Each structure stands twice: as C-alpha cells, then as structure tokens.
Amino acid sequence: RMALTTYQRGIILRGICGSASLKDKQPQISDSNTVITCAQRLEIWDICSISCDAEAFGLKVEFGYDGATRITFTEKE
After folding, report:
1. Closest CA to 42 of 72, 69, 3, 73
2. Sign (positive/negative) of CA torsion 33, 39, 49, 18?
3. Confidence band, pLDDT 50/70/90 cuts, at residue 42
4. Is pLDDT above 70 for 1?
5. Angstrom distance (rounded) from CA 69 to CA 37
6. Predicted TM-score (pTM) of this structure
7. Calpha distance 19→15 (Å, rounded)
C-alpha cells in the first residue's frame, strides 16, 4: 500500500468536512492536511461517522477536545 500524498489527504479531509457530521461546525483543515479543528463538541454519531470515513481511506483518527475539537488523522501501518 502506497502512502497518501498531502494532496490526497486534503481531498479526503475536505470530503469529511463537507459531511453531515461536521456541517455547520465551521471545520478548519491544517496546512499539512492532517488535522481538522472546529469550535463545537462532537456527538457520538459524528465521531462514529468520521471514524468510518477515515477507516475507508486507510486513516486512523484520534479525537481530542481542549476548548475546541481536534481531529488528527494518520495513516494506518
């Protein structure tokens, strides 16, 4: 399996940002296309949906909240 390019990760993350799970949450993608941040907390349904989308593209996802939601994407090994 080949590693995703920054451009390919960007396309995947833009798709996730456009999904129902992040709609109206003003998601922002990092310059390196590895992190999405948004001001709102996520519901369990949002977390499940984002995790499934990431898994479909071979990405592992970690969620954190410290005043803003931080979703970090890394490639599965």
Report:
1. 69
2. negative
3. very high
4. no
5. 5
6. 0.92
7. 6
Sign of the dihedral through C-alpha 64, 66, 69, 70: negative
CA distance 7 to 13: 10
Cβ neighbours of 50 (radius 10 Å): 21
Residue 60 has pLDDT above 90, yes or no: yes
Give the separation between CA 17 and CA 1, rounded to whole angstroms.
Answer: 25
| Coil/strand/helix, residue 77 | coil
What is the DSSP code (8-state) at residue 66?
Answer: S
Identify the H or E element spanning 47.
helix 44-56
pLDDT at 37: 97
Residue 15: what residue type?
G
Arithmetic mean of pLDDT, 30-42: 95
N-term to C-term CA, the chain: 9
